[in-house]
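User: Could you go from structure to sequence for me? I need the amino acid at each position, not a summary. Structure tokens:
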């Protein structure tokens, strides 16, 4: 199976579907990421705060897959925002991952109460210049945060990784990013399993019509919407299922029905008010 790649605004390419490891236990991470690599995933999304970069690194090392065939993302945690603290955090992440560079380094949250995300962004620019990351981007950035880094630096983020699933489709923020050449990565692509998404009629009807599972229908909607995704699962069967979404298409009516599920239903923290 061939996973499509997307070209980012800095000329690099990213596999549109990867594997996310939020809430994967550190002790289980090597095994589960190995399952994902065996299933064909080549893009892994982790973060310093997930506490499992060592397991991701071990799975990479034991896979024998050439480094340039893998796409690895990690993220700067909020309390490490700044200049020297961000340099140090990047070095620690690389050490844990056992890598010389990552493909994408993100500011995890704007954490506006700290007021250090612009300074952190300037540090990420330097980390990219130093070769420690190929691309730099942001996560959970709202319009005002994006405006500030774009106006205050010479780099437009390559991606903005935001909460996005059918009941929280983020159309306005997506369009704002798109207009600036910033690609959307959708976190919680399955709504983190926090609401009854799979039994909602547009999902269930499309699943029955296509012979795919409700999760595959939701992930297919994400891909056809143009989002980069990295669903998480601890289960080898579901890990394989979530990548098996390139042998069918949702038609215009099925896409429109999925689009109608948007209800502004955020399941995670609000980036403007999160106090972590
Ligand atoms: P997801 O939307 O990927 O949902 C994960 C949940 O869905 C788990 O409970 C999983 O259970 C279940 N699931 C997965 N596949 C299936 C399936 N085929 N059928 C039924 N249930 C399924 O949530 P995440 O929060 O994990 O988001 C994905 C990734 O996004 C994260 O892992 C992380 O990399 C990133 N992320 C980034 C954030 C940020 O602030 N930048 C915040 C949150 C996530 P099970 O494991 O039992 O299969």
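Assistant: Here is the amino acid at each position, in order:
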């Amino acid at each position: 199976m061939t996973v499509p790649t997307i070209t980012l605004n800095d000329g690099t390419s990213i596999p549109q579907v990867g594997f996310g490891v939020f809430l994967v236990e550190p002790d289980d991470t090597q095994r589960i990421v190995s399952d994902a690599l065996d299933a064909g995933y080549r893009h892994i999304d982790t973060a310093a705060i997930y506490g499992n970069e060592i397991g991701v690194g071990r799975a990479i090392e034991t896979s024998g897959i050439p480094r340039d065939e893998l796409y690895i993302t990690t993220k700067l945690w909020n309390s490490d925002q700044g200049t020297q603290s961000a340099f140090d955090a990047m070095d620690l992440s690389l050490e844990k991952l056992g890598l010389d560079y990552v493909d994408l380094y993100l500011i995890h949250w704007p954490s506006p109460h700290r007021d250090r995300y612009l300074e952190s962004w300037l540090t990420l620019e330097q980390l990219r210049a130093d070769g420690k990351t190929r691309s730099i981007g942001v996560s959970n950035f709202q319009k005002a945060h994006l405006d500030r880094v774009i106006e205050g630096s010479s780099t437009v983020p390559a991606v903005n990784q935001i909460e996005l699933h059918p009941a929280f489709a983020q159309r306005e923020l997506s369009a704002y990013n798109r207009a600036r050449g910033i690609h959307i990565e959708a976190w919680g692509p399955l709504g983190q399993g926090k609401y009854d998404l799979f039994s909602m009629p547009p999902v269930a009807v499309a699943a029955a019509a296509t012979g795919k599972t409700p999760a595959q229908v939701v992930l297919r909607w994400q891909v056809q919407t143009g989002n980069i995704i990295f669903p998480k699962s601890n289960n080898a069967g579901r890990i394989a299922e979530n990548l098996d979404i390139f042998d069918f298409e949702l038609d215009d009516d099925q896409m429109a029905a999925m689009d109608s599920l948007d209800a502004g239903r955020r399941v995670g923290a609000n980036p403007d008010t999160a106090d972590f």
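One structural detail worth keeping in mind: DSSP finds ten helices and ten strands in the chain.
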